[in-house]
Write a structure and sequence with these properties.
Radius of gyration: 43 Å
Structural class: mainly alpha
Largest sheet: none
Helix content: over 70%
Number of helices: 1
Order of helices and strands: H
Distance between the termini: 146 Å
Strand content: under 5%
Keywords: Membrane, Transmembrane, Transmembrane helix
Mean pLDDT: 69
Number of strands: 0
Amino acid sequence: YVAMYIGMRVCRYVAMYIGIRVCRYVAMYMGMRVCRYVAMYIGMRVCRYAAFYIGMRVAMYIGMRVGRYAAMYIGMRVGRYVAMYIGMRVDRYAAMYIGMRVGRYVA
């Protein structure tokens, strides 16, 4: 009886101890693996969306700021060149046309 009782107690403790250790390792390992995958997956999805969203917002903001300045700058530069070019061409034609009409009347 005593031997049986001691054997049971010892076995129970050993089994409990081994079971707890093994379970802890397995749970830790599984938990780590699962958590890592889940965290990786969620992190990837969230990061992708966040990066996309932030990138869009930043690009929009920069685009608006830069776009406004660039449009103004390009508009001014292009406008000046176009105005100069058109002005020169139009002036030449207008001067020729007006000169011819006026010349004819005067003549």
